[in-house]
Amino acid sequence: MKQYHRFGLIFLSLVFVLVLNFSSAEESDEQNYMDELLTEDEYPQDMDTLEEFIQSYYLLLDSNEYLNRFKFINQDKNVFQNDAKTLKPFYEKLLELRSGVRDRVSVYQIGDSHIQSGYFPGTARASLQKYYGNAGRGLIFPLRLAGTNQPDDYKISSAGGITRNSSDRGIGGFALNASATSSIDISTNSFFNTDNSFNKLSVISSSPGLSPKAKVADGSETFANWNEYSLRSLMWDKATSKISVKLYGEASILYGLILEKQSPGLLYHSTGINGAGFYNLLDSPNLFKQIGMLNPDLIIISLGTNDAQGKYRNDLFASNLKRFWQLLRTYCPDSAVLFTLPPDSKKHGKHNADLEKLEKTIVDFARQNSCAWWDLSDVMGGKGSISKWRKEQMASQDYLHYTPKGYMLQGYLFYQAFVKSYKYFSENAGIKER
To answer: Partners of 126 in the beta sheet?
Structure first.
């Protein structure tokens, strides 16, 4: 009996530990795949070599001959759906941008680990900015200082004064505590074969806020308060790819940084959070409030993969989707909205059939609430297509995530759908670009 009693105590202790770590286990699993992602023989380990690999692959994506090689991709279906009316105000702004009437159009994408790795949004951003103009890298965050993986087209380091805030989450996906004399070094590169230099830096923090100071020629400062948040900016004349910044003011919570060029174009912000879904972002009110600070012309919602894991309940998902929408619309009542349906994946070793239920719920919701959608799963080949992507070394061995070139292909397909849908609108609206 003593042996059974001892076993029972051990079992209860293990259960207790599992309960304590449940909230972080999902994110840890998501991060583990990033550590293993580049172990494929095809991918170089050295960062400089990886950058060359990515840039060469990016150029390859421009080749129709390369894309036509993948017969399972449904290029005919690669368009936005339900967009004629729902995205009309957004398309009109793009027309004004292309005609020189408007200087800036902004996009904000929120997603999970498919987005946090940076390959999907990085490819989409670089491609779209070549077409609509480059207004800057947009939103960035010191994700490595927060203890998680970060896109490769920028680096942020700190000499001190910054620590992780594990109880908060903002526009950058995470939050950091910053002292009154914090310092950060920011550098960008041409990882996606695009110019990421900048001559405007903005800091989003809690009030009273932190002001960026740097040794720049002809620098000027602006600041604005938005409810309980601070948005303070530093602008200068000559664009740079590297800057050392002191953050002055009072100790605050750092939520995000924005890099911009003072030139006309598209500004494409993105936030990816490992393990995120509609269900677990509902407890992050600061995130929704700060999206309102950006006031994006288009919001792209790239969630759903994690909602379809475990024991899926469609009624619960529909409820979470509705609550997510209510929070978003509270702070962004006028932004056009586009859902990207989750890519194909497996669960328990076979096709995740719950994805079809989830996707139908999103599509029905989008119709009822005047939103557009892009059916990534259908475009990439439909049910079971992740096996074909894996065969081409574009999907990870967990059959849930994708390799760098897989995410980049998805980002390029998104760019094609974006431009194709925009052109169809402009041609059928009878509007000619100047």
So the answer is: none
pTM of the model: 0.90
Query: How do residues 66-95 score in pLDDT, each as one tens digit?
Result: 888 999 999 999 999 999 999 999 999 999
- What CA–CA distance (Å, rounded) separates 419 from 90? 13
Q: Tell me the CA end-to-end span of the chain in Å, nearest whole number.
A: 86
CB atoms within 10 A of CB 356: 13
> What value does the mean pLDDT of the chain take?
89
What is the bridge-based pairing of β-strands 346-347 and 154-164?
A: unpaired
pLDDT of residue 42: 63
**Amino acid symbol at 199:** N
**Rg of the chain in Å (alpha carbons):** 22
- Residue 416: per-residue pLDDT: 96
DSSP state of 38: T
Q: Domains, the chain, ranges and CATH?
A: 31-135+265-428 (3.40.50.1110), 136-262 (2.60.120)
- Going by pLDDT thresholds of 50, 70 and 90, the confidence category of residue 22 is very low
Cα separation of 347 and 384, whole Å? 11
Which three-class secondary structure state does DSSP give residue 414?
A: helix
Listed residue (321, 328, 335, 327) closest to 368, CA to CA: 321
